[in-house]
Amino acid sequence: MSQTPLFDAAIDKILAPLVPHTRTCAETGEAFDITQRDIDMLRALRVPPPKTAWWARLRQKRACIAGFDLFRRDASDGTSAVSMYDPASPVPILPPAIWYSDEFDPMQYGGELKSEEPFFAQWETLSKKVPHPAIIQDANSANSQWSLYSLAYKNCYFCHTGLDNEDCQYLDMSMHTKHSTDAASTHSSEWCYETVGCRGCSQTFFSEHCEESVDLWFCLACKNCQSCFGCTNLRNKKNCFLNEQLTEEEYKKRVGAIDLANHQVVEEWMNLCKEKIFRNTFRLAGLIFGSEQAVGDDLEDCQDVEGFIMKKSERTYYGFGAVSGKDSMDFTNSVEFERCYSVNRTTQGYENRFTHTCASCIDVEYSELLTNCEHCFGCIGLKNKKHCIFNTQYTEEEYWQRVDAIKIAMLARGEYGEFFSYAFSPFAYNTSLSGAMFPLSQEEATKLGARWYEFPPEKDPAVLPIESLPTELSKVDASVLEKRFLCPVTKRSFTIVKPELEFHKQFNIALPRVHSSLRRKRRQERIFPPRLYTRACGICQAVIHTRIPSAYTAPVLCRDCYEKVVIGEKEVPTIK
Predict the structure, then answer these.
(1) Spatial distance between the Cα atoms of 386 and 388, rounded to a whole number of angstroms
(2) Least crowded by CB within 10 Å, which of 78, 92, 271, 407?
(3) How many structural domains comprise the chain?
(4) pTM (2 d.p.)
């Protein structure tokens, strides 16, 4: 028997006549398809069809996730706290120790959610009243108080979104990695620097999408290789320089002549790789491992999925970042979830819809920061609650009557089915994760309704110009740890921390000369945007789906052709 009969009747009228068709994205004006698969999922999850293309929906959701910056803010208890919310954010904050304790009761901020009034305006009022945790961290992590969205970290500094990492600095979206700095999407690796998308690697530097390799420099898509420099798409090779096979003696002599302890030399090689070596080499359409009916990139042990960075998931579509998801659509950064739609950072969730950062919840909608809750609507910060609306407790009978009225009114106004817009994000666009993945100008972000944070100009006379930092590592000593330098690009000050200096000294690599947040955003730019394009394989002309756009003119290959090329059974056509 339906708990929301009015809403069910109304949504059936919308979903029943749906047939596959093409829509125009309300945000970008681009065409996107509603497929039969989409319709089947929408009917199963009881939600109306989306108004925007899926990558635009992803951008909107990730605008509600904190980016790479942390701030010092005044908390509601009168203390000062390190916060993921910028000082201009409208949400109040509390130190995590208080927010997660029994001392904090978010129910005291509750009120009545009126079905006859627009939902999101009422939500904004509640969001500005209920304190948020200043920063979201794993209480079980050790000595990693400056890391964000982390699980099981140890001795990590300024790391973002990861699992089981140890002794790392400026590590983003990575798992099971140790002793690394300035890396992104790097998994099961150690002693890495400036890597993107590497797996099972050790002592790998300035490299992308390499696997099970040791001692690589400026390499792309190499697997089971050792001691290679400036190489691409190699398999089981050793002592190669720019894909040329050398003897061990020749290789050491060639590499030894390159002084990577000099920042100018590092910049020259980084630019050479970006503009010539990496750009002009053939690529695999998508990294898909042990998966069936999988469309997208970086998919592992999945079945019937479409999206990016997913592992052990089934029948999940339009997702970015998932482990163990089932029968869900439109999600990002979620783990162990089922029958969920349009969710951000859901952990162990079942039938959650339009939520952000909820854990161990069942049937919660349009809510944020809920833990172990069931049947809640429009709530913030609740723990162990049931049948609540707008942080107010109701009986089971009252709850369902009110939710039925609220949802049908939202559906009629065109609100139900929409995620929280940019205007309702507690983060400024340029400090959110979307600001790194989908960079926009201030004008473009403001046009979307997003807020923009202006970092205050650096006025401390003790901050040194970047020219004061030697370009040669040999001229840097421990006194650098006591200094602050002005980034020439962001005009923000930054420091060199002790583990970072020790890493650079150990591998004789020049120190960075720009702010860490800029370095992290630049690594994100090295990853193709999370959009799928239809192209033809550069050899057999078979239809392929890839995140590599047509502007990338080098051949993009299907897996069969790619594997035959890397083992020497086929040749790649010459780029014209």
Answers:
(1) 6
(2) 78
(3) 3
(4) 0.94
